[in-house]
């Protein structure tokens, strides 16, 4: 009976493995729209949800990694590996210096988080607040100037999940407010007219990124499936799927 009650009372949640698979699927949908299926705009609408999930998992990875140095080196390796596939997909050439792949976004953000956490451990509130302000401003500028994916807005998105990390009501409110400002006010983009109950209004396509908070808040720390092969599958999926899409696109366009 106790065992049955425990199963009944168990809350539904998503593991980090499930979040990885969901984010990769949504990213693939977005990249399919960008390459092979440009007429299927619903694919990029769904793809808006992918980046915030990846940003959230980057922050979680920082707090759960056994070695920050190894974590950064692993990301650096895959940032370098992914650059040519990204350039081929995004710019149509082997070398496209005007936009860098998304792993560079996460690398810059993680450096900022590491600096903020290092100061936070000194337990000097004033110094920590000053550091947060400086890191946020410099991080946004670096993200924009270095032209990493999502630019400064991408760096700020990662910082949002660091600064509002937790399951308290004010964390959710902070995430919603900050992500709305970043995606709708900063990034903006295509607007969709909507009519509901006789009321007409517009929805920003980039604002659909806020739906990422639904699966994120269903995550409660459970890791789920974990193995070295699965870990490296998640890393290699990024460059490999871009190469495959580019090869298919080149074949179709021959």
Automatic annotation (TrEMBL):
Keyword match Ion transport: no
Transmembrane segments: 12-33, 71-88, 94-113, 125-142, 148-164, 171-192, 198-220, 232-252
UniProt-listed InterPro entries: TraX (IPR008875)
Nucleus found in the keyword field: no
Keywords: Membrane, Transmembrane, Transmembrane helix
Pfam families reported for this sequence: TraX
Protein name: Conjugal transfer protein TraX
């Amino acid at each position: 009976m106790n065992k049955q009650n425990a199963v009944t009372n168990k809350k539904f949640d998503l593991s980090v493995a499930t979040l990885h698979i969901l984010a990769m699927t949504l990213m693939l949908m977005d990249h399919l729209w960008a390459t092979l299926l440009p007429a299927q705009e619903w694919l990029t609408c769904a793809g808006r949800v992918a980046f915030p999930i990846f940003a959230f998992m980057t922050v979680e990875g920082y707090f759960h990694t056994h070695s920050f140095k190894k974590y950064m080196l692993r990301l650096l390796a895959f940032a370098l590996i992914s650059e040519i596939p990204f350039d081929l997909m995004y710019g149509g050439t082997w070398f496209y210096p005007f936009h860098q792949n998304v792993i560079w976004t996460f690398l810059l953000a993680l450096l900022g988080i590491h600096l903020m956490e290092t100061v936070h451990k000194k337990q000097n509130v004033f110094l920590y607040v000053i550091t947060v302000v400086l890191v946020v401003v410099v991080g946004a500028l670096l993200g924009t100037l270095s032209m990493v994916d999502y630019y400064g807005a991408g760096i700020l998105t990662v910082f949002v999940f660091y600064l509002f990390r937790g399951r308290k009501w004010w964390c959710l409110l902070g995430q919603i407010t900050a992500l709305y400002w970043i995606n709708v006010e900063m990034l903006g983009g295509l607007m969709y007219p909507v009519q509901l109950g006789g009321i007409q209004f517009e929805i920003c396509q980039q604002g659909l990124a806020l739906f990422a908070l639904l699966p994120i808040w269903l995550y409660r720390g459970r890791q789920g499936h974990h193995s070295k092969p699965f870990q490296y599958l998640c890393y290699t999926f990024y460059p490999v799927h871009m190469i495959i899409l580019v090869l298919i696109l080149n074949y179709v366009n021959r």
